[in-house]
Amino acid sequence: MIRAYKFLLRPTSRQAQALDEMLRDHCSLYNGALQERRDAYRHTSKTSVRYGQQSAQLKEIRSFDPERQGRWSFSSQQATLRRLDKAFQGFFRRVKTGQKPGYPRFRGVNWFDTVEFPKDGDGCRWNSTPHEPVTRVRLQGIGHVRVHQHRPVKGRVRTISVKREGKRWYVVLACDQVEAEPLPTTGTVTGIDMGVRHFLTTSGGAHVENPRHGKRNADALAKAQQAVTALPHRKRENRTAKHRRMVEKVAALHRKVRRQRLDHAHKTALALVRDYDQIAHERLNIASMVHTPKPKLDPTTPGAFLPNGASAKAGLNRSIIDAGWGVFLGILAQKAESAARVLIPVDPRNTSRTCPRCGHVDAGNRDGEKFQCTACGHVDHADRVGAWNVALRAGLVLPDVA
Length: 402
Fold this sequence. Notes:
single chain, alpha+beta, Nucleotidyltransferase, domain 5, 402 residues, 41% helix, seven-stranded antiparallel β-sheet, 20% strand
């Protein structure tokens, strides 16, 4: 298996300054490579510049600017160029499929926060000696940086990334050959139904409440954003210390919500993996679920539009995004694989409209959270019915419907 480990770095003040310079110089390399691609396409008969051509120029760039580019790892600079190439590959793929293209943009220093070292030992070195009192990671141009290693690293370290989040620095280790740690079998199975009122409901009728972290922090976030907006508009290079503090406060609140959402997802997924041998869930297309409704032109009044439910849909979209279904399902898949559990995705269509007793499908079966079959009269909670049908579609053996 492949696993990632994220640890807090504790650099000295001089090391923190060097880390900032490393990000700045890699950001400059990224933007310069992007500018070269734009110029080649616009002014040289629509010529496309590839990664191989730009990578071959690195040696000259490093010798021309040894103080800014020559001091960093050659492999990490290649990884930065691959990052740009990957952005262009995604752009062309979206163009071919008819999606919104999203042309790669220049990155500001505050928006470029990660440097990757593609191989342990090439410009970086993870200290894996078990008897050392302090764990350190060696980075070319930085030195040996202390690491707060709160859990053991398993498997073989393949890549090392340094990431900045606010005023903190982290090291991310991508490891392969990680062995699974199977949990004892429980002999139980379940289906889960994702929701907004309840975060999820199992086929046994157990509800996990939706913490709504985004909604709970919405007022504080709105006040912080209003404080930034109230400040006089200035160019980025002329912004005051107060403006920077307000911007950092907004970013800190967003990071807080993200950490809370991740913590809830990890704990909920771990509880499911410990309790059930097989778990069935809906294969949700979340990106399509949060699309904004298209406007409807009024045929009787030129320039006017008919009601399309955009306001109500916007509230539902915020609730879906706040719940973080995609993050949770990804974490659940990782934990299930690590614990040798079976995770089964199924088609979600009509799971909450199908009677689990007689199989009758009707939109009128569900009224809010209440499910009442129009054919046989079976009454139950709509989310439990959805979880039950998810488990049945996955082929799991459940007790008879009560």
